[in-house]
UniProtKB/TrEMBL annotation, chain A:
GO biological process, one term: response to antibiotic
Domain ABC-2 type transporter transmembrane: 13-197
Protein known as: ABC transporter
Superkingdom of source: Bacteria
Protein's cellular compartments: Membrane
Alphabetical keyword list: Antibiotic resistance, Membrane, Transmembrane, Transmembrane helix
Any one GO cellular component localisation term in the record: ATP-binding cassette (ABC) transporter complex
Cross-referenced PANTHER family: NODULATION PROTEIN J (PTHR43229)
Principal subcellular localisation of the protein: membrane
GO MF term list: ABC-type transporter activity
From TrEMBL, chain B:
Protein's name in the database: ABC transporter ATP-binding protein
Broad class of where this protein is predominantly found: membrane
Taxonomy of the source species: Bacteria, Bacillati, Actinomycetota, Actinomycetes, Streptosporangiales
SMART domains (UniProt xref): AAA
InterPro entries from the UniProt entry: AAA+_ATPase (IPR003593), ABC_transporter-like_ATP-bd (IPR003439), ABC_transporter-like_CS (IPR017871), ABC_transporter_ATP-binding (IPR050763), P-loop_NTPase (IPR027417)
Tagged with keyword Nucleotide-binding: yes
Subcellular location: Cell membrane
A Pfam family it matches: ABC_tran
Organism whose genome encodes this protein: [Actinomadura] parvosata subsp. kistnae
């Protein structure tokens, strides 16, 4: 099984590397936002800069997970290669896992530019163990958004998937406090914020890298969202099977 | 002989369209079966059911005595992807490695590619292959896992004559070594060249199942075209249409038809007798109840 998962992950990685636009976009997008919004406003405050760097790294990772994945999954479903893969002697697990591993690898690449910028241009600071733990939390925290991307990609055509994933992405990023710290959000947003899955991941990352106390409601709601989206993505996969006319 | 795969009273419906209508078919070990029929006859649906891509609406499909939905059962089969869907960015060798990784018993990559004339293209990206090369790669992939049974859906569509013949040779050598093949094609010539047994499907039913010779008789339909105001009842007519005073009759026995026509004393002019395309013959045949099979 491990060999099969590796074979599928390898295929996705090769495609990503040979057409690197997606990879480039998910690496540059958060870096540019970081330089424009974080460096001038929070660059001098170590704690604020650290938290903002963590938020921005997650912002980029989430874009890769949610937007890229939903589009590529929807596009792949429109290719005849996809039904062919279903005739190979493997269940859905290797392809599912392979796709998630390849996206995680892309996530790690997208982390590098913001990390370098935070070190060079701001007072952001953390320890090596906290950084590594933070990366671990980032990889785990991005999983529910990958499942969300899979779900959207599996139930929609590519064009609809592009629109829907972006419509979900920005409000979740803003309400979750990734672009502005929660205390700067309007009151009603702060009420909703803990129930948005992005906030849970952000809380986790802030706690690990900057030593804040995570909000329990946000963490519980993140766990709840993860279960719901995982079940929905599995349902969408099964439903997709045998749907296309041929 | 051992039955490798079978359909028992299988129907498959897509919305309002009945793609297969109570089809029963056995494929036995060592057979080379040609599946013939016009577009929309249900050929691809049948193959998709055998390969586990679709579930029947009713009836049972068995593969190696199990369910085609079970991945482990599918280790024994090979399927051809549509060449238009091969991932463009990947190299030929990478795709073969990837497909092979799914099977416990694997064909040697170099030998496999050589058999389909692709040995010097291992490092070529799919995006840089010609249509014919893609087609050959797609067919080669069906053999990557040393299958017992391969499904070749339109394997030579878009290939030139030479490439077609070399591909036929590849299929024959697989069959000589004991492999079982279920092949679909638009080309009667291809089925004649390869298959021992031919199954004709039309409108979701099996219309004929027999040797190539049996089936050639079934599809040996001619088009008799003439200008006539009114025609008497004529023998062997399986279909007719009238366009601008000209009548086209599809018949299995044009000689007898003409003899009867002359005997009846009906005035006519502009008599032509032409072979029909396979497609027309099937359409004519499927418009009436099957005579046998």
């Amino acid at each position: 099984m491990a060999e099969l998962i590796a074979a599928h992950a390898r295929l996705f990685l090769l495609e990503q590397l040979r057409v690197p636009v997606g990879l480039l976009a998910s690496a540059l997008f958060p870096a540019i936002s970081f330089v424009a919004f974080v460096v001038p406003f929070a660059g001098d405050d170590p704690r604020a800069a650290t938290m903002a760097a963590a938020s921005m790294i997650f912002f980029g990772a989430m874009a890769g997970a949610l937007i890229n994945l939903s589009i590529t999954v929807a596009q792949d479903r429109e290719q005849p290669w996809n039904p062919y893969l279903r005739t190979l002697p493997a269940g859905p697990l290797p392809r599912f896992s392979g796709r998630i591993l390849a996206t995680l690898a892309g996530t790690l690449v997208s982390v590098v530019p913001v990390l370098l910028l935070a070190m060079l241009l701001t007072e952001a600071t953390t320890t090596l163990p906290r950084l590594l733990l933070g990366l671990g939390a980032l990889l785990a925290g991005v999983v529910p958004f990958m499942l969300m991307g899979l779900l959207i990609g599996l139930v929609m055509a590519a064009k609809a998937a592009i629109a829907v994933s972006q419509v979900l992405f920005f409000p979740m990023a803003i309400v979750g406090g990734l672009l502005l710290p929660p205390r700067m959000l309007p009151g009603f947003v702060e009420v909703v914020s803990p129930y948005v899955p992005t906030r849970g991941v952000a809380e986790l990352l802030w706690a690990i890298t900057a030593g804040t106390t995570p909000d329990a409601v946000a963490l519980v709601s993140l766990a709840g969202w993860t279960v719901v989206v995982a079940v929905a993505a599995a349902w969408a996969y099964r439903r997709d099977e045998g749907r296309r006319f041929s | 002989m051992t039955i490798l795969t079978r359909a028992i009273e299988v129907s498959r419906r897509y919305g309002d369209v009945l793609a297969l209508d109570r089809v029963s078919l056995d494929i036995r070990a060592g057979e080379l079966v040609g599946l013939l029929g016009p577009n929309g006859a249900g050929k691809s649906t049948l193959i998709n059911l055998f390969a586990g891509l679709r579930r029947p609406t009713s009836g049972v499909v068995e593969l190696f005595g199990g369910s085609p939905q079970d991945p482990a059962v599918r280790r024994g089969i090979g399927v051809t992807p549509q060449e238009t869907g091969l991932p463009e960015a990947l190299r030929v060798g990478e795709i073969v490695d990837f497909v092979s990784a799914h099977f416990p018993d694997r064909a040697d990559k170099g030998e496999l590619l050589a058999r389909f004339g692709l040995d010097d293209l291992v490092r070529r990206q799919v995006g840089g292959l010609s249509g014919g090369q893609r087609r050959r790669l797609a067919v080669a992939l069906a053999f990557a896992g040393k299958p017992q049974l391969v499904f070749l859906d339109e394997p030579t569509t878009g290939l030139d004559v030479e490439a077609r013949r070399s591909l036929w040779e590849g299929v024959r050598s697989f069959h000589r070594d004991g492999g079982t093949v279920l092949l679909t094609s638009h080309y009667l010539e291809e089925i004649e060249a390869l298959a021992e047994r031919v199954v004709v499907v039309g409108s979701g039913r099996v219309l004929a199942d027999g040797t190539v010779r049996d089936v050639r008789d079934v599809v040996g339909v001619r088009r008799v075209s003439l200008v006539a105001p009114d025609l008497p009842e004529l023998p062997g007519v399986v279909g007719s249409e009238r366009v601008d005073g000209r009548v086209d009759l599809l018949t299995t026995d044009p000689d007898r038809l003409v003899v009867e026509l002359v005997r009846s004393g009906t005035p006519f002019s502009g008599l032509e007798i032409r072979p029909t395309t396979l497609e027309e013959a099937f359409l004519a045949l499927t418009s009436k109840e099957p005579s046998h099979g």
